[in-house]
Every structure is written in structure tokens, then in C-alpha cells.
Amino acid sequence: MTAQDVKTLKALAAPRYALPPHQRKWKIGTTGFMLIMHIGAVFALLPRFWSFQGLATLVILYWVTVLGVTLGLHRLVAHRSFTTSKLVERIFVLMGSLACQSGPIEWVGLHRHHHKFSDQPNDHHDAGRGLWWSHSEWMLHEIPALQEIDRFAGDLQADPFYRWLDRWFLLLQIPLGIGLYWYGELHAINGGGLGLVLWAIPLRLTLVYHVTWLVNSATHAFGYRNFDCPDLSRNCWWVAILSFGEGWHNNHHAYPHSARHGLRWFEFDITWQHIKLLRALGLAKRVKEARYQA
């Protein structure tokens, strides 16, 4: 064990002091948006808005959005675990930006910050503060890590496309909503255009939010460990299923630059299967792959 490991373990055991007054205030914009999305998700489940078209829309957009986060924002951009063309990269980042989890620069910067200080007091979703904090409460308050985005995502700051997307990512929901509303009204499906919009935006976003947040919370609390990492990361099978392989979190913290997260034969990794397909098509190159050795 290195001196840095000992320092990290001491930090994990350190008491978590109360947040300073300026951090206790709720971020009105973020909190309000999350409330609206959750309320919209509840309305989407009312019988009057049910339709097979709505379910199909949810499934397809869930796949697009989660894959955009896991393959695009996470494994491709945040960790550079493989390379691809600029066009393919931007397509996947656009898919990930449909998740409305801030823009790509902020997402990548905060994720890299998390790996630098995982489960230490200055980790912005520090699991040492409890399950609710690491799951979602952290984003409802001002966090010091936001002041270090330039330090952790300077490579993306140099790209005008990513700067634009970081500012205007919410606008992506507008053409999506308009198109689905038009389709629903045109084909007179049950619930009409509003039903499709409710299934495609608030219900989808709410599901994707909680699945993503489970990687921050549940996989730092439940499951098993293949590697003795200096943090609380765990491998959690049910989170891995929901998140397309991100639940093999202890593996990821042991080998953060590996494009493959499921390292044992039973650790099925849907995102890794997509990366292998891209590699077979010649679209993914220099793929970094860790392997498990018992």
C-alpha cells in the first residue's frame, strides 16, 4: 500500500462536517427542474397517456440516452478509453446530452474530479455523506468542484462545439418534443401528442437520472469488490443491468481507462458489447481493455 493509499483511507474514515452556510442553500433552478420532471413522469403513467407507441418511444430513447452517457460521455470522452472519428464522437456526445445532466464539459469535468477524489470529503458526491447525498442531493447545492471544471476538462473547453453544447444542451429537448407531439396528434394515438412527450421527456429523464445516480450511490454501498481500491466502489449487478454495464464500478475504479467494465465472465457489460461492435466496424480504435486475473 502506497503513502497515497494510506492518505486516502484516512480521508475515507474522516468525519464529515456540516456543509458551510453557502452550500446549504438549495439551487432553485436545478431543484425546480427536477421536481417538474418527476411530476411529469407521474402524469405520464396515468392510464389516459398509455400507448404502445409511448412505450416504444421510451425504450428507444432510453437506449439512445443511456448509451450516449455510458459510451459517449463516460468511456469515450471522460476516460478516452478508445478513439473514434470526430463525427462519431459528437454523435454519441449529442446522445448523452439528451440526458440533461448538464453539458458535456461540466459532466466530464465533474466525473474526472470524482475519480481524483473518490469518496474523500472533497468528492462532490462523497459517499461518506450518506446514500441520499451521493445519489442526488449533491447536485441541488453549490459544490466547490464546479470551480475546477477548467482544470479537469480543459481539453473540451478548446472545442467550440462542446462549449456551445455545454450552454444550450436543454434546447435539444425542444425539437424532440415538437416532433413527437406532431406524430402523436397526426396518428391519433391514445394520449395524443402530449402522451408521447410525457413518456419521451419527463418519464425518460427521470428513469435515466435515477439509473445514473445509482452508480454514484448504490455502487458505493452495495455489492462485491474484485479489487482493493482506496475508495468505497462496489460491483452491483442490478445497477449494471440498468446502466448498461456501469454498475461494475469497482472494476472501473481499478482500471478507469478500460473500455471494458465487466471483467469476469458473468459481468455482462452492454456498453462494452457496443464498443466491440464499433471496433468490428472499424469505428473504434486503440481500445483499452483491462482483464481480470484471479
What labels would you give this structure?
oxidoreductase; mainly alpha; fatty acid biosynthesis; globular; 294 residues; membrane; 15 helices; transmembrane helix
Brief summary:
The chain is 57% helix and 0% strand. By secondary structure, it is mostly helical.
Low-confidence stretches: none
Strand and helix order: HHHHHHHHHHHHHHH
Beta-strand segment tally: 0
Count up the helices.
Answer: 15
- Name the helicity range: 55-70%
Task: Please report the distance between the alpha carbons of the first and last residues.
Answer: 19 Å
GO cellular component, one term: membrane
Organism: Paulinella chromatophora
Main location: membrane
Transmembrane segments: 26-46, 52-73, 168-184, 196-215
Describe the structure.
There is one protein chain. By secondary structure, this protein is an all-alpha fold. The protein has one domain (26-280). 57% of the residues lie in helices and 0% in strands. The model has no long low-confidence stretch (mean pLDDT 94). The chain crosses the membrane at residues 26-46, 52-73, 168-184, 196-215.
Which helices and strands occur, and which strands form pairs?
Layout: H1 3-13, H2 21-24, H3 28-44, H4 52-78, H5 86-97, H6 104-116, H7 131-135, H8 149-152, H9 154-157, H10 160-168, H11 173-186, H12 192-216, H13 237-242, H14 249-254, H15 270-280
